[in-house]
Here is the input.
Amino acid sequence: MQFDPKRTALLVIDAIDADDTVYKPDPAQDTYRQNVAEVVNLCHEAHLPVLFCNDAHIPGIDHELELWGDHGIAGKSHIFPEINVQDSDYIIPKRRYSGFFSTDLDLTLRELNIDTLITVGADTNICVLHTLADAFYRNYKTVLVSDATLTFLVGTQDQAIERAQKCYGSTIVNMKTLGELLKG
Here is the structure.
């Protein structure tokens, strides 16, 4: 796969900690968390825009909370401390699974002249997959970094990766391959 780095951005989906039932820090996820941080570093070094699409739910009204309980509450969660967030990064709060649903993600990407999204984050089978679906509907090309995504709530990682590839045309790469692509 080849992509134009001037038209590519990294989308980090729900790489957050919170003291709740979904995002409570889990030592079993340390490798995943380090991989997300490394992909962010690689993209910063390649001068790609980095956008964080994070849950920022409003208690008492967000429909998603009825299914999963209180999680990712606005103002009570934070990006993984392993990640080096820079002032030039974009933070896009979301209240549903997809980073595109009722947010300014699409507008921001279009203003940046982006047509390709590298995606990392969690849950691969839920928020990542719904964001990839909406990216597909908007004609973005997508790359999913398999070892910097995580399924932990429903289904399996392999199922999510297969759906991303077969249903939404995502190119699946690992971190090593992404690093080679970014270096050129």
About this structure: Helices lie at 30-45, 64-68, 105-111, 124-137, 157-168, 175-183. The chain is about 35% helix and 25% strand. Strands lie at 8-13, 16-18, 50-55, 77-79, 90-94, 116-122, 141-150, 171-173. The first strand starts at residue 8 and ends at 13.
